[in-house]
TrEMBL record:
Pfam families named in the record: Inositol_P
Molecular function via GO: inositol monophosphate 1-phosphatase activity; metal ion binding
PROSITE patterns: IMP_1
GO biological process, one term: signal transduction
Positions of Mg(2+) 2 binding: 93
Keyword Hydrolase: yes
InterPro entries, A to Z: Inositol_monoP_metal-BS, Inositol_monophosphatase-like
Record bears the keyword Metal-binding: yes
Identification of the protein by name: Fructose 1,6-bisphosphatase
Organism annotation: Levilactobacillus bambusae
Highest taxon of the lineage: Bacteria
Amino acid sequence: MEMNEHQIRRIDHAVCDWMLELRTRILNHFGQRLTVQTKTGRKDLVTNVDKENEKFYVEKIHGFDPQAKILGEEGFGDQVNSLKGRLWIVDPIDGTMNFVKQHDHFAMMVGVYEDGEPVYGAIMDVMNNVIYHGGPQIGVFANGLAVPEPENLSLSDGLMGMSASLVVNDVSHMQAIEHAASGMRIYGSAGLDIIAVLAGENVGYISYLKPWDIAAGRALLEPLGLVVSTIDGNALDMLSSNLVLVATKQAQQDILKIVQG
Ligand code: 2AM
Ligand code: CA
Ligand code: CA
Ligand code: CA
């Protein structure tokens, strides 16, 4: 059952309210001791705030949309192995390393999909108190103000957001892409990298991403004429990891040329 514009606006109000409530809780946490654990290695962290946030989202989503399935990074949602029906995809803190080390430069992300297609996304830049929110049916807003389509700049005319490990290891010609761009930026939060592309600050972003890192972003990027694909220009698999390229249409072409040699 496809949702109409009115239903998506209801989701929008609810998600923005939840994010604002969580933001207040996060700011209060800064006065307290964080519990930090490692996941796959010493650079892959999770804190009590990641877990508490995800539990909060799962509880709110269950109350709001009881039939939907939830895919959350920290595992408090459902076991999801199909894109059929309505799926909420949640990243409770994006940029956990920044959150722990800097108390800044992190995001929260919520995406809603129907049969594998994006219908809604929200990314909050928590410390700047800005939410990018919307989708293909309702348009894209930053705290309620319409976001203009970014100019279709080429790679040579813009900054590229990249992930440190890809550049260090020169995966898929990352160093050649850096040389061709105006410059490279490494922010450490997929959500903030995506916001930089939405806002027209950067022409693209490349990183190895899980579904919760890109779900919200895809719902916001595509309505603004920006493109989301794998580094080979193929469609993403929204249930697994992808080497993701987010870009203006022109920068995507420029990067595909470099990658394909
Ligand atoms: P996270 O903080 O929600 O885990 C930089 O590390 C960016 O890449 C962050 O947005 C981070 O999201 C994401 N990321 C994806 N997989 C990661 C991993 N295995 N280790 C660290 N960060 C990862
Ligand atoms: Ca993580
Ligand atoms: Ca993330
Ligand atoms: Ca996370």
